């Protein structure tokens, strides 16, 4: 088990008492000595499990941890066959979708689907542990026509989860190919630990398209100009991307509004604005 932060290191000392963790490797000599001192006093049987990483190669590079962390933060995880799973975490549940992707496989589609689903089972269980995913989990396997195929996949999933420390409960795969399960939440997920919600999209995972924002602006101008007919000038402040979109494709609407409402519309570009935000003033 590898940690760079001392607080996490001391937490992992407690986990060393379990059979799942064989050793603790630390790349800070100071933190290593503190751990050895602590364990020598309170848990002497753990001293031999603590190692100092004293070679010049960074600890995450040496053990390949960086690659696993990047994979654990990605929505899509590729399988060796060319298929992939996508993992989406919401407040209510975690949805995992299995896809054949680039995998063509055998001439029998059912065999291809079964092979992909079985490969996905191993990766799903690994990702559940790696990402510390808990709560309600819905796995959308590729639809299988044969009941025996569903049984094979369900048995593989049940067997793979036997080595999981967290308590799990799995229901049979439904006719729609969904496997519902719960996994005891032991600690925060890896995403919650390492990441913050996107400051730009506020954690939604998407933003309105420039075209949609342009139509929002057009409707707001029409609304404001119609409610205040005595105003003759409209000043609009927008993000540069929205400005480009407006005059590349939607400029004719601006001309039509100017004629219909007898106003002059001017635009000001502000690169500091959020792409979805804009300001409209009438004078």
Structural write-up:
The mean pLDDT is 87. The chain has helices at residues 6-15, 29-42, 59-62, 65-73, 109-130, 147-160, 190-194, 210-227, 240-249, 251-261; strands spanning 24-26, 50-52, 76-78, 84-89, 94-99, 135-140, 168-170, 178-183, 233-238, 264-269, 279-282. The N and C termini lie far apart (65 Å). With 283 residues, it is α/β, with parallel strands linked by helices. It has three domains: 6-59, no CATH class; 66-194; 210-282, Hypothetical Protein Ychn, Chain: A, CATH 3.40.1260. 41% of the residues lie in helices and 18% in strands. It is extended, with a radius of gyration of 28 Å. α5 (109-130) links the parallel β5 and β6 (135-140).
- Write down the overall geometry: extended
The H-and-E topology, N to C, reads as: HEHEHHEEEHEHEEHHEHHEE
* Number of structurally distinct domains: 3
Fraction in helix? 40-55%
How many runs of DSSP E, i.e. beta strands?
11
- Give the integer mean of the pLDDT values: 87
* Distance from first to last alpha carbon: 65 Å
Most strands sheet: 6 strands, mixed
Structural class: alpha/beta
How are the strands of the largest sheet arranged?
3-4-5-6-8-7
Strand fraction: 15-25%
Integer-rounded radius of gyration:
28 Å
Low-confidence stretches: none
Helix tally? 10
